[in-house]
Amino acid sequence: MNASSCDVAIVGGGIIGLSCALYLREAGHDVVIIERNDPASGASRGNAGALAFAEILPLASPRILRKAARWLFDPLGPLSLPPAYLPRIAPWLLRLWRASWPSNYQANIQAQVALIGLAQEEMLAMLDRTGLDRHLHTEGVLEVYEGAERFAAARETARQRLAYGIESQPVQGAELADLQPGLSSRFTHGMLVPSWRNVDDPQALAVDIGLRAQALGARLLRREVRTVEPAADGGRLMLDDGTALRARRIVIAAGAWSHQLSGPLGDPIPLETERGYNTTLPPDALDLRRQITFSDHGFVISPLTCGIRVGGAVELAGLKRPPDYRRAQAMLDKAKAFLPALRTEGGEQWMGFRPSLPDSLPVIGRARRHPDIFYAFGHGHLGLTQSAATARLIRDLVGGQTPAIDLAPYRPERFF
């Protein structure tokens, strides 16, 4: 292929696009990654670094709807929805509500189990064969709760996980204090999930995956894709400098902006953005033994090589509304109350866009009308976790192989 054409063009240089590039290049495809910014500089940069292999329960669930009703009354709480954005997001919220119905919820659990199972297998294998397993940490995650009543709900979650072979270990008292010294006494119970994994720096891992793909021959093109024009032999990508790139196959993995390209192709996929906030403190801000999840408060604190990251929350406010960093500060204030030894000076605040679909499942599959265009987006909170699995499935589709798992739950047609 020449400089203006390729076998596979990947739109998006986040963890999903970079992983797809690696897998496709390993399979021998001529690959171009098109990214308007630095690779892994969006949601792949600011996440908590979790390989959440225990997260099989969809966000679109009765438990989240019950919590949401309480959280929405706190303007700086775990969930925020500016009133002015409500008319725009109302159809998405209606779909989320329908996805939480018992029959839909159970079906979505099955789909998450399949994808998460593949995710664990593929991620660990990819890290091993590329030598990037140096980024991997295996301390598990500690979920903490205030009182027996809140912990009872956690036991139900643990029971559901155990049905799929995911073990959780209840802890309290001295054992909880040993797992994280200095934790406020208000947290009386905890749940340790050993199968959870973390990486030392999510952006560094994503960048290294991209570099490995480039070392194998993938090309990185620093441009913005304005439109995707399908053709009989693939398609043409029109770029922001007025040039075009021809590709036999196209993978759209542009995160929260993906629907801007899928819509004109005949697939108006209901993608929304969960705006997440965090503060990354210096690495010595706390002796943090592992990631801690404050489930009832909607945030986590993670030990990374780049610092101690306090983040989470959900703000449903689209792509254009200015950041409200009071949300990051509110989580930091809570983290200080929950871990009094935490030093909160010298932090860097961040806001990013999690591309989310109302049923908590990504879109992985072919465009309805264009068999040489593929979608790989909408992973919500699980982009890092599901990245290698998504790359494996895209590689299967592009190569004309039977996908590793049934793709029916993730197909774009489910919304139409």
UniProtKB/TrEMBL annotation:
Cited Pfam families: DAO
Superkingdom of the source species: Bacteria
Identification of the protein by name: FAD-binding oxidoreductase
UniProt entry tagged with the keyword Oxidoreductase: yes
InterPro entries noted in UniProt: FAD-dep_OxRdtase, FAD/NAD-bd_sf
Keyword Oxidoreductase part of the UniProt annotation: yes
Keywords: Oxidoreductase
PANTHER family, alphabetized: GLYCINE OXIDASE (PTHR13847:SF289), SARCOSINE DEHYDROGENASE-RELATED (PTHR13847)
Domain FAD dependent oxidoreductase: 7-397
